[in-house]
């Protein structure tokens, strides 16, 4: 296609492009409107590609901007472009890959990738062959331009390139890329590795058949003079460690030596190399291959943990007092409400210690709750999600400490001694970070040193440098468990006093770190903090009036965690008078549509649960507002579904936080909530929420249903026939937390319904048995499923007992580590009832039942008798000789525990 622009049109577009580079917001808005208007003319895009590729009289930024506007047009309106215009753009883009300007070549590469992504590579069949032919050009610029485009395509379309739909072009492309590893140009060598790197993690077949050639070529250029090449080599080796460690193992010694050098490089290569150690620390071969090099690696990691000059500039590390400087919006990371998930408390007592592989039916899975990475979230960066050498080095040290345990200390302690007490604050700060990083792995070996180190760290909380005070808060939180286990006067009281001072620090980063550390201390100390509650509350509520927005969110967490940790001890008039007025001042200042309500409502949920009847004066206003938030959201949802062009979809998080706060109020007030429930339409709202399309809404509504069942079942009872089929429908482990809460609610309802649960047993028992037998079910869901099955067996033993053999082993294994409580009690009573109805069902797995019975610390007298009767009955039935042979399979601890508890 041949096309020539009109001079007037071209002049108008050049003017617009130049105006769009203005810093004036009004000018930019006017340009944006004009560009949108021009989009209605088909040949507008021809002008844009012409400016990018042909108008060499214009400066490069203006030409590149023209290409980027065209990219957005193709992304948004690509499907409506006339075929002739699109062909013209494609042809011009390919020609522009040989432009002398690197910026224009890069822009053309972005355009090509956008066209390929929007229309699909299959609709541009000549693209990949053309680019691969261009690689063979004798003109370096053409080769580099083609490689730039190919790298973007490999990055964006890795899966498509390996598909049958395109006849697997990678079978040709990967061998071709490998030929360029030894090219004379470092830029082209770097592109070649970067292209192949896109296919390592996916174990793409075309790469796997060439893996040895790839690794051989990597080793050949590993010591390349060009940093970008070495950086890409490091990336390759890190990914190969994940997917083809078998191919690296024979060369591991040389690779480790190479990575030791690269980790000490002065630029981004060091981070890519450091990620190798992070990955290696998680591999089973780590100890075997790394031990000879450990003494050289550890000092390198600790040096990598020191702030660079650039870090200090970015962090404004020289600004000590900034509490009066307003928070910038971009510094506040998005905060997501975590819906209420019902979990069981675990026992660390004697009952849990009879664990042995002989009595475990399956590996315990981790809970589905996400655990924050302490190094991604460390309070030492203006943007906590920025991954850097410091954080990578600290995370690696942490993992290695967990691999080597106390064997790590002979190497590390001399380094710590040197850094922790160093005169230069930057070195001292990195030493304090290192001390925190090893806390989990080396705790046993560190204990003898803590009586000296903890007081030193408490002194460091008053250091004149804010970054030292900040990291000291974090490190002390890592040793909070040990601090709490010691006499209070020695460590806990001085630590608490200094941490509370730091909560009121004049530096915002220190405030944040102190609040987070104090929340950890609260979780560890629990009711040990009760004697100091007045002092703690005074400080937290003073901070409440002092903090700016970002740290206020963390303070809400600290207040909520305090309430969770001390529970009903908070229910004293003097504490309520300190705590509630500031919270309600904030409550009254926030509008219903304000997202700042989320953290406040979360905090109040914990407070309401802890205060019990102490929350009564505030309960009605909280209850009514929550009902209103749920109602408003449901009305908006119906409006947006019925008329999507006129009404926006609501933010359903308002509904989720309101449901969760009502759960907290119901749990705290218990039967006192009855009058509020009776005068509202909450059951109707709950019925709607339980069927919402958003999993988090269903999850929170099931938690509230369970709490209302416990608090005022008389209002739930009339709706059971509507509610239970919905709960049964949600017994789907694909949505773990939804399924978990539905399971728990079924158990709570069954305890109240008693024998009237019978009609619903066929509806729920099958899915529950399926869940408990699924090897990928998480620990939390397993525990709640086992409790609910036990409760169903308690109220309807005749209906549930015939299925006993299908779940008894998994049931026992799931509940053995649960702390003694009411839920465990009812579940075990149910199991005893089922065994009485169907004793044969437990026989093949009786060892698991013995282990579960031994997990009790202090069962109720009648439950103890039930368990003892079953154990002795089994012994009598099999006879002394068979019983002796059976007991020989037991771990020694289990035999001792059963003898002590049940005289058997």
TrEMBL record:
The keyword NADP does not apply. Residues 326-374 are annotated as: Disordered. This is Transportin-1. Keywords: Cytoplasm, Nucleus, Protein transport, Repeat, Transport. It is found in: Cytoplasm; Nucleus. GO terms for biological process: protein import into nucleus. The keyword Repressor does not apply. It comes from the Eukaryota. Pfam families: HEAT_EZ, IBN_N, TPR_IMB1, TPR_IPO5. It comes from Anopheles culicifacies. Residues 347-358 have a biased composition (Low complexity). Residues 31-99 form the Importin N-terminal domain. One of its GO terms (molecular function) is small GTPase binding. Residues 364-374 have a biased composition (Acidic residues). SMART domains: IBN_N. One of its GO terms (cellular component) is nuclear lumen. Belongs to the importin beta family. Importin beta-2 subfamily.
């Amino acid at each position: 296609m041949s096309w020539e622009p009109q001079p007037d049109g071209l002049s108008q577009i050049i003017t617009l492009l130049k105006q769009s580079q203005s810093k004036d917001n009004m000018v930019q808005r006017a340009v944006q409107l004009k560009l949108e208007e021009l989009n209605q003319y088909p040949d507008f895009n021809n002008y844009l590609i012409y400016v990018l590729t042909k108008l060499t009289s214009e400066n490069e930024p203006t030409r590149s901007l023209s290409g980027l506007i065209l990219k957005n047009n193709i992304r948004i309106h690509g499907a409506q472009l006339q075929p002739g215009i699109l062909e013209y753009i494609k042809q011009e883009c390919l020609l522009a890959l040989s432009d002398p300007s690197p910026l224009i070549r890069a822009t053309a590469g972005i355009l090509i990738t956008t066209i390929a992504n929007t229309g699909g590579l299959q609709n541009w069949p000549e693209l990949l062959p053309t680019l691969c032919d261009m690689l063979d050009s004798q003109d370096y610029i053409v080769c580099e331009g083609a490689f730039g485009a190919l790298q973007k395509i490999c990055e964006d379309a890795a899966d498509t390139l390996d598909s049958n739909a395109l006849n697997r072009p990678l079978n040709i492309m990967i061998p071709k890329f490998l030929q360029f590893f030894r090219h004379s140009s470092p830029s082209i060598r770097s592109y070649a590795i970067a292209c192949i790197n896109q296919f390592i993690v996916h174990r793409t077949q075309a790469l796997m058949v060439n893996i040895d050639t790839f690794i051989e070529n990597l080793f050949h250029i590993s010591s390349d003079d060009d940093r970008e090449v070495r950086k890409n080599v490091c990336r390759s080796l890190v990914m190969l460690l994940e997917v083809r460690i078998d191919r690296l193992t024979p060369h591991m010694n040389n690779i480790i030596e190479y990575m030791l050098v690269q980790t000490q490089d002065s630029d981004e290569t060091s981070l890519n190399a450091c990620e190798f150690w992070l990955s290696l620390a998680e591999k089973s071969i780590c100890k075997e291959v790394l031990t000879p090099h450990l003494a050289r690696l550890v000092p390198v990691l600790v040096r990598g943990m020191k702030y660079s000059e650039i870090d200090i500039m970015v962090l404004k590390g020289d600004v000590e007092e900034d509490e009066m400087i307003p928070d910038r919006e971009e510094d506040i990371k998005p905060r997501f409400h975590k819906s209420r998930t019902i979990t069981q408390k675990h026992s660390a007592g004697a009952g849990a210690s009879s664990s042995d592989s002989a009595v475990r039916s399956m590996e315990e899975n981790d809970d589905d709750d996400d655990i924050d990475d302490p190094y991604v979230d460390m309070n030492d960066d203006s943007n906590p999600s920025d991954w850097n050498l410091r954080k990578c080095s600290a995370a690696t040290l942490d993992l290695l400490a967990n691999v080597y345990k106390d064997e790590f200390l002979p190497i590390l302690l001399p380094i710590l001694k040197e850094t922790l007490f160093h005169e230069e604050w930057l070195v001292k700060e990195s030493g304090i970070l290192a001390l925190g990083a090893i806390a989990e792995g080396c705790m046993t070996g560190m204990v003898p040193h803590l009586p000296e180190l903890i007081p030193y760290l408490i002194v460091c909380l008053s250091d004149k440098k804010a970054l030292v005070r900040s990291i000291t808060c974090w490190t002390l939180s890592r040793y909070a468990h040990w601090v709490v286990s010691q006499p209070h006067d020695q460590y806990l009281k001085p630590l608490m006093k200094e941490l509370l001072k730091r909560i009121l620090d004049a530096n915002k980063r220190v405030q944040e770190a102190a609040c987070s550390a104090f929340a950890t201390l609260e979780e560890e100390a629990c009711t040990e903090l009760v004697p100091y509650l007045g002092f703690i509350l005074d400080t937290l509520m003073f901070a409440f009036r002092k903090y700016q927005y970002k740290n206020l969110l963390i303070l809400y967490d600290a207040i909520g965690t305090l309430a969770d940790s001390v529970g009903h001890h908070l229910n004293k008039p003097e504490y309520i008078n300190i705590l509630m007025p500031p919270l309600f001042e904030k409550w009254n200042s926030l509008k219903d549509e304000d997202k700042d309500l989320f953290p406040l409502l979360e905090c109040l949920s914990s407070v309401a649960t802890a205060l019990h009847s102490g929350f009564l004066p505030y309960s009605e206003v909280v209850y009514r507002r929550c009902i209103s938030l749920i109602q408003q959201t449901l009305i908006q949802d119906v409006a947006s579904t019925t008329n999507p062009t006129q009404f926006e979809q609501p933010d359903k998080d308002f509904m989720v936080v309101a449901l969760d706060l009502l759960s907290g109020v119901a749990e705290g007030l218990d039967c006192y909530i009855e009058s509020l429930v009776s005068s509202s339409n909450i059951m109707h709202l709950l019925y709607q929420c339980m069927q919402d399309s958003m999993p988090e809404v269903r999850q929170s509504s099931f938690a509230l249903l369970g709490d209302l069942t416990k608090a005022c079942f008389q209002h739930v009872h009339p709706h059971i026939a509507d509610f239970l089929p919905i709960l049964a429908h949600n017994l789907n482990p694909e949505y773990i937390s939804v399924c978990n809460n539905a399971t728990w609610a079924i158990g709570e309802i069954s305890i109240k319904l008693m024998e009237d649960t019978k009609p619903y047993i066929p509806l729920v028992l099958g899915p529950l048995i399926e869940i408990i037998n699924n090897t990928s079910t998480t620990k939390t869901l397993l525990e709640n499923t086992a409790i609910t099955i036990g409760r169903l067996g308690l109220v309807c033993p005749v209906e549930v007992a015939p299925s006993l053999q299908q779940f008894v082993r998994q049931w026992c294994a799931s509940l053995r580590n649960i702390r003694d409580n009411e839920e465990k009690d009812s579940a075990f009573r149910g199991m005893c009832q089922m065994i009485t109805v169907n004793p044969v069902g437990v026989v093949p797995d009786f060892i698991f039942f013995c282990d579960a019975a031994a997990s009790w610390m202090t069962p109720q007298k009648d439950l103890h008798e039930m368990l003892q009767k079953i154990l002795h009955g089994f012994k009598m039935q099999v006879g002394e000789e068979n019983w002796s042979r059976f007991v020989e399979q037991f771990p020694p601890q289990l035999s001792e525990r059963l003898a002590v508890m049940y005289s058997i």
